[in-house]
Amino acid sequence: MTGMTLAAGGSTNLNAIVLGIGIPFVVCAAIAVIIWSYFRLQSHRTDAVAMAHYRKLAEEAVANQQELRAQLAQLTEKVSAVEQLMREVG
Fold this sequence. Notes:
Distance between the termini: 125 Å
Oligomer: single chain
Radius of gyration: 38 Å
Number of domains: 1
């Protein structure tokens, strides 16, 4: 009967309303933050993996470039030798 009297008198219990709405809101907000943090972590992991692949590719490119420079130096030596031979002959 006390609940009926309060409701009939126009008075509301604010503590019940705050607890009834506040606790689920806080729980939902915490779940949303956890989910957001998880996907942000996954994004950073993906970026880290991509950067590792990029680093490996860059190292391979540098190694290939050094090999090409060595081959180019050998070719230059051979061309110089052929030019010298042509000068001597002709």
